[in-house]
Every structure is written in C-alpha cells, then in structure tokens.
Amino acid sequence: MRRANSQLQADRRTEILEAARRCFVRSGFHQASMHDICREAGMSPGNLYRYFPSKEAIIAGISERDRAEVAETFTAVRDAPDFFAALAGLARIHLVERSADDVGLCTEIMAESRRNPEVARIYCDLERGIKADMAAMLRHAAGRGEVRRDLDFDTVAAILMALADGVSWRRAVDPGFDTETTIPLVLQMVASLLRPAIEVSETSS
What we know:
This protein has nine helices and no strands. The chain is mostly helical.
C-alpha cells in the first residue's frame, strides 16, 4: 500500500512538472502563474502546493529530472565502444532532436537565472553537476586512449557546454538557423580538440 502511494505521488509530481513545462513554454516563467499550472495539471491550488510550494520549486524539480537524464546519456557515451561515435549521437539527441519546447524552456530558465537568485542557485547546481559528469566522461575516454591525456578536463567540459548552449540559444532565437548543417562542423571542432595527436614515424631508407 505504501509503495502504491509513493508511485501515485511520483506520478502526480510528473504530471505537475509536465504541466508547468507547457505553461512556461507557452507564457514564459513570469507570465505563467501557479493558478495557470493548476489548471493545466487539472488540480486544485491546495493540492499542487503540497508537491511544489513555488514556481522556483517546480524549476528545481524539472532540473533534477533533467540532471538524471543527462547523467544517463553521459554513462552511455562512457561505456560505448566508440567514444566519438557515441559523442556524435549525444550531440544529435540534445542539439538536433530535442524538441523546440524543451529548447525554449532551457533558454527561459537561463534568462530567469540572471534575475532570480533562487533560480540562479538551481541553475548553477545543475550546471555544476553536468560539468562534473562531462569531465569524468572525458577522463574515462582519456584513460582508454581515445582522448588526449594532457587536457584540463574541467576546462574542456566548460567549453563543450558553452558550445552546446550557443547552438541551443541560436536555435531558440533564429528561425533560419540550420542545426543539421551546423552539428557536423561543431563535431569536427570538438574532435580536433580532443583526439590524441597521431605520431608519424619516419623510416630511413
């Protein structure tokens, strides 16, 4: 019985987060009220506040779930037999196949983090975790000889995140931006940075 109640609560949390996503994408963080989210989720304000006392708490819930999903994708890349092929697949998932609504929500949270200290704290925690996971993924690949060992992996992770943020932001604000054309070039840049130098031995005749 207790397990059934826990599952019901988890399901309701998921419903609220999905409803909030739709409201934030449709109206923006400021314009979407808790009452709007209640209507979208089909529940009373009193019931919703039992799960999330504020919009900031909802953002934290969305970020926690996104963090878990990103961690799973990094683990898949780490364990893949071909690091660069898996990295290309990861880039496609997050930068090309990701829905326009998800990209819009991400930019909305980024913008709000500049104005709202609580959202800034949530966003920085999310970014810190992603950066640590990405650096660990790179170190693992370096240990297998697929990535240069002389890199500062924390700095490289920050650079890769900046590239991803830039592509996502451009996709969100520029209707003419062609992600399909851009991603192969981005991956070439990343490969040039990460791949170990090929040592060419000269043989004397």
